[in-house]
């Protein structure tokens, strides 16, 4: 049986990937992952995202959370 957290983790990972975002916990990790000529911003807890997709990523992550809560309530 799939847990609600399994659902949300998969959907969160998809949203992060689709936004071109990644986790970096220091300059070394950031420099290894960044793409040239892209401006980045920090979302939360080491989550780095291109500025142009940041607002959509935040919306998508909120939507995933809401859907996971609704799914949990329905089980």
Q: What are the key terms here?
A:
single chain, 75 residues, three-stranded antiparallel sheet, elongated, alpha+beta, 3 strands, 3 helices, 15% strand
Q: What report would you give on this structure?
A:
By secondary structure, the protein is of the alpha+beta class. The protein has one domain. Helix content is 63%, strand content 15%. It has helices at 4-19, 27-33, 51-74, and strands at 22-23, 40-44, 47-50. It has a three-stranded antiparallel sheet with strand order 1-3-2, sandwiched between helices. Helix 1 (4-19) runs antiparallel to helix 3. The N and C termini lie close together (12 Å). The mean pLDDT is 91.
Kindly summarize this structure in a few lines.
The protein has three helices and three strands. With 75 residues, it is of the alpha+beta class.
Which SSEs are present, and which pair or pack?
Layout: H1 4-19, E1 22-23, H2 27-33, E2 40-44, E3 47-50, H3 51-74
Helix pairs in contact: 1-3
